[in-house]
Structures are given as structure tokens and as C-alpha cells.
Amino acid sequence: MVIIGDTGVLVVDSCYLPSSAREDIAEIRQWTDKPVRYLLNTHWHNDHNQGNAAYADAFPALTIIAQTETAKLIALRNASYLSEYSHRMEKFQREIDTGKYPSGTPLTESEIEDLKNAVKGGKAASDAVSAEFRDLKVKIPDVTFDHQLDVNLGNREVQLKYLGRGNTVGDAIAYLPKEKILITGDLVDSPVPYLGGGFPIEQVATLKRMAELDFETLVPGHGDVLKGKAFVQQEIELIEAVIGAMNQEIGRTSDSPQTRFDEIKKAIERNVNMSAWRQKFAGDDPNERDFFEVFTWPGLLEAAHAEMWPR
């Protein structure tokens, strides 16, 4: 997302590949001769910030901004990802051979098939990406904020906000009150939400605070631009349905819910119509349906269980 004011430009997120960031920078320079003064990293996941260095090289006066916890996690986690990337195909092959993740969790048949496809078709692409990552240095945000930071680009106000935990511990959004535009990072992804981790219980409250803002256009972390608040409400309702069913099942017995995840998962799948939710989000698109089944649904159950069981 590129926001242009009278005196400068703010960019939201900087891509996964430095080469993609450089392509975006070239496009920005076609649109305006004003400098990119600010770059917001919405969260620590590296597909949103590994282009930071490319922006810093192109715009030496750039200030990179993130919520306080996001800046800490970029510094903590992203360097190890870059150093380990070139060995990912060997890691995938070990998982195929053993039928398990490194944690010991068994792989499903569809997950094994996905890994086989990645190994079969991914070597050339992986080598190209490894070449980009070989000398890439993690560029950490320069400025952090806890709850809100307002930026004036010259007759264009941008409010950077932290409304609570959700997809990660430090999700930031960008809000243009005059234009009624909201940029959400991965708190909202379309058409299928990214719910493979995070804090679902808190995310409901965060999304509700977000929906109270006066916006008409929503730019998600992934996917097409959305109009209105209907998609946000649908995401809230999905998470609430799972949390409600899980609360009921955890409360059914005094046995430790930590050791009963498989049993709890089966009970939720009896009481919450996963197929209906998949249809609402993914429709008949086979790739989106697969993403919902393999990633979003099990990820939501696991994250909700992890967040809930110590209570």
C-alpha cells in the first residue's frame, strides 16, 4: 500500500523478496517524485518486511516504523529464517521420509503430498530465492510505538494504531480517516483468513475495535481490496463459533484440556459446520478450499486451544 501526501510517501509493508520491493520502488517513482519517508511493518512475518533494506537503500532518509513487539520479533526471528532458507529442501525431504514434522507431529497425507510437490518443482525457484537471501541483512525498524503514532504526509493524515493482539503479538494497522481507508496487515486476509496461529480470543476483540473505525475501504494483508465491514464481521463470527464450541467442550470435564486436543478437535468438528464456513470464505475455488481445510481451520483450532487451556 502506497500513501502519497504533499510532502512525502508512506508505504505499508515491503514484500518477501528484495527484488519485489525494488520493482515496487520503481513503480512508486513512476507515480511521484516525492521521497518515501516512512515504511510501516504491520507485523513480524517476513513476507511483509524482507524488502526493508531495499527501501532503505533507495531512500536514505527513510524511517521504518513498527509496533514495539513487532520490532523485537523482527530482530529476534528473521535472521535465522534467512540463514536456514537454503536448507529447506533437505528439511522437506526429511519430513517426507519420516512422515513427521521436526516436533514429532505426524504429517497428513495431503501435507506429505504438498511437500513432495515442493521438492519436485521447487529447486530452481528455491535456488533463485537463496541467491537473493545470501547477503541480505535484516533491516530492523528505526521507530516504534505502543498504541498510536500519527503521521502527516502533507495534507494527508495517517494514523498508525495497535488495537490488540491477533495474528501476532504486535499487529499494527494504518487508518486514513479522511479517505475512510483501513489497511489491516494480516489481521484480515481475503478471501480466506490467515488463522494459522496467533491469539484468536484476543483477535475477536481486536477485530471488533477495528470495525468501530469509520472506514469504507479495507486493504487486507493478502487478497483483493474489500468494501465495507461485512468480511470483518464474518471473520469474527467464525472465530467466535470455534471459541464457543471449544469452551463448551473444555468445560465438559475436569480432565486437562492440554492432553485432550484430539478429542476436543473432534467434538468441535461435530458441533461447528466446517464445510459451511469453508463455503462462505472459499466458495468453489479448489485452492482456497484447500487452504481453508489444511491451514486456516486446523490452525484456528490449535491456536484457540493453546490460548485457552491454561485458564
Give your account of this protein's structure:
By secondary structure, the protein is an alpha/beta fold. Helix content is 48%, strand content 14%. It has ten helices and eleven strands. It has helices at 18-31, 52-58, 68-84, 88-98, 109-133, 200-211, 230-250, 261-271, 274-282, 286-308, and strands at 2-4, 9-12, 36-40, 63-67, 143-145, 148-152, 157-161, 173-176, 181-183, 217-219, 226-227. The strands form two sheets. The protein has a six-stranded mixed beta sheet with strand order 6-7-8-9-10-11, with no helix packed on it. It starts with a strand and ends with a helix.
Give the SSE layout.
Layout: E1 2-4, E2 9-12, H1 18-31, E3 36-40, H2 52-58, E4 63-67, H3 68-84, H4 88-98, H5 109-133, E5 143-145, E6 148-152, E7 157-161, E8 173-176, E9 181-183, H6 200-211, E10 217-219, E11 226-227, H7 230-250, H8 261-271, H9 274-282, H10 286-308
Parallel strand pairs: 2-3, 3-4, 4-5, 9-10
Antiparallel strand pairs: 1-2, 6-7, 7-8, 8-9, 10-11
